[in-house]
Amino acid sequence: MDRSLVRDYMTTDVVVLRPDDGFKEIVRALADRGVSGAPVVSETGRVMGVVSEADLLHKEAFMPVAEEPRRYFASRSSTRAAQARSAADTAADLMHTPAITVTMDTPITRAARTMAVQGIKRLPVVGDDGALVGIISRADVMGVFLAPDEELRREVISEVIERSLWEDPERIRVEVRDGVVTLSGRLASKSLIPVTVALTQSIDGVVDVIDELSYERDDMAFARREQRRSLCG
């Protein structure tokens, strides 16, 4: 199946921080470009970590009001961890490491899921040598999930049901609502159900899959019996 990759959506004009960049330099760099975080990169171009607004807030939270304007960061924290982090003065001290990264050939849906699961807003994109080549953000991947429901339905039928499984589309009912695909009907064998669900989930734009599939033959039970027989052998 044709898959959208990170290379199709990433930004190559990246705000880059150096390990010895100071707090105010970091704030200025992010504010000037209107971004909420940036990768910290070594002299060889390798990603060392990421500094985000949240990292800077720990520092800002404990500064005297006269030292730094409050325009750019408004949140406050009073935890001990935040107070300890407020002592950091450079990108190397402030950054979160190791950085979670993706490659240019990572499927865009996997990048989106990674950001959702990890609760982060951006992922540095690295080449085969680990050097930074771009960055992808939540805003970059949102367009993937805007495909019309009917378009997704047609793709599930043509790419999954017909092309991959060679199944009669009349046997499998495909419904799509707000990107959520519901599959129902009867497949020839039980082992095809997880395959069908996985292939459907891999389609760009599919938000989730609801499995209501049944089967005619439990080929997995036969495989289990054969496995037990070989173990008892």
TrEMBL record:
<dbReference type="InterPro" id="IPR000644">
    <property type="entry name" value="CBS_dom"/>
</dbReference>
<dbReference type="Pfam" id="PF04972">
    <property type="entry name" value="BON"/>
</dbReference>
<dbReference type="InterPro" id="IPR017080">
    <property type="entry name" value="UCP036990_CBS_BON"/>
</dbReference>
<protein>
    <submittedName>
        <fullName>CBS domain-containing protein</fullName>
    </submittedName>
</protein>
<dbReference type="InterPro" id="IPR051257">
    <property type="entry name" value="Diverse_CBS-Domain"/>
</dbReference>
<dbReference type="InterPro" id="IPR007055">
    <property type="entry name" value="BON_dom"/>
</dbReference>
<feature type="domain" description="CBS">
    <location>
        <begin position="10"/>
        <end position="67"/>
    </location>
</feature>
<keyword id="KW-0129">CBS domain</keyword>
<feature type="domain" description="CBS">
    <location>
        <begin position="95"/>
        <end position="151"/>
    </location>
</feature>
<dbReference type="Pfam" id="PF00571">
    <property type="entry name" value="CBS"/>
</dbReference>
<feature type="domain" description="BON">
    <location>
        <begin position="148"/>
        <end position="217"/>
    </location>
</feature>
<dbReference type="InterPro" id="IPR046342">
    <property type="entry name" value="CBS_dom_sf"/>
</dbReference>
